[in-house]
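Before the break, one more example. Copy the sequence into your notebook; we will annotate it together after we see the structure.
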Amino acid sequence: MVKRKIFTKSRRTRVRQAVINTEIQKKAQKLKEADLIKNIDRKRCVLCGGRHIYRNLNKPTVYIVSNKSFRDPWLKVGYTNKLTRRLSELNTSVPIDFEVEGHETFRSEKHARAAEKEMHRVFSHLRSPNSHELFIINPVQAVSMLGHIKSRMRT
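Here is what the structure looks like once it is written out:
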């Protein structure tokens, strides 16, 4: 009988500790995302001349990211619905985090996918032989082309 009480108490302790650990992990993830958004804002602020236009992170987005760990100056052009989630996914596979060079949000997924496809078509001659989404492009040129494509779509 005594052993059962000890087992129950230690099990409760383990369960409480597990709950506490999950809460700690959730809070750490939120802090990481907040830090990520701050880094993105800082980079975006430089590109946009000080204007903070980095609001709608959960809309269909075409993004342009770079990473200093690549030997050559490659840029990745891609599509996502949640930019912060996508960046956290990308940053798990490389030693140095990806930096957002630019992004554009769109009204619909259809428009965003079409813009991404157009970016890939325009820069197809600069594409990496091993990857469909990596290009050797000047970041300013890529961001301006993305803005031009968005303005043509009127979204």
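The radius of gyration is 21 Å. The mean pLDDT is 77. Try to locate both features in your own notes.
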